[in-house]
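Homework help board

Subject: predicted structure for assignment chain

Our instructor gave us this sequence and asked us to write out the predicted structure in token form, then describe one feature. I got the tokens but I'm not sure how to describe them. Can anyone check?
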Amino acid sequence: MVKTLFALAGLLATTGAYAQAPPIAYAEGGSRGDAIYLVNPDGTGRTKVYQGKTASRTGAPINRMAMRSNDGGGEIAFIESERVLMVQPHLASGQPDGRAYSVNVPTGSSCILGDLDYLMNGTLVVADSCGQAWAVAPEARTATRHFEAHINSLTALENSILFVENGSNRLKSWGSGGTTDITTVSQPANYIDATATKLFLSDTLSFHTVQLSSPYTDTPGCTRGGMTEVSPAGSQIVYIYRGFLMVHSATCSGSPVRVGRDARSFAWRTY
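My token output:
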């Protein structure tokens, strides 16, 4: 989910090697169950890549999502019904590349799955509700223990993880040197995303930003809407407002673009 200028440069450098599918994936609720679509920030290129199960009257809701590119297209990871981790590969055209497959995360029956994101190296990191973060290597079908932390929300920063600790509201990072304590955020954040210099924190109704350097200035967001993510260049944000998936400039100049409806969750491709 984190979007850095470095990541953007990497994407531009590989454009000649392979085409890019639309960079936003979102889950749309429906009577047949949630479905996942790819779409461009201007609303074009909408392509269905996954149809969820109708497991009950309300279907099997897709709670969290992340996505990444590879030389054949890319893949979308998502949490279904809070307990099942799924991965749907797709082609560079945006069409599904085979069927979605499940990944075994051996959390135990009392734990549910939470936030997730891809590191730059292709590893997927997913948190559970029992104080554990799990790692899924590219194409692996089983997760392994990564590090211990009570995570409310997380985002990748290249090959490190930024996360808000559940209960304390402490912003921390985890990388090769272990866990680093950064600062306290002003309110609980169920969703976070970041550029190299700025953290975006949100609930389902609003967002605010925190500079990732001292004095860690906290600034209210410029628009209503929640679950906010930022584009790789940091110039646009995507969020949900009254069920609609909206894309707007990061400074909220101009008018937002409505790119989807009945949106439950979404991800903007980073790498």
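Reply (TA_rk): Your tokens look well-formed. For the description, you could write something like this. The longest helix spans residues 5-14. That's the kind of observation they're looking for.
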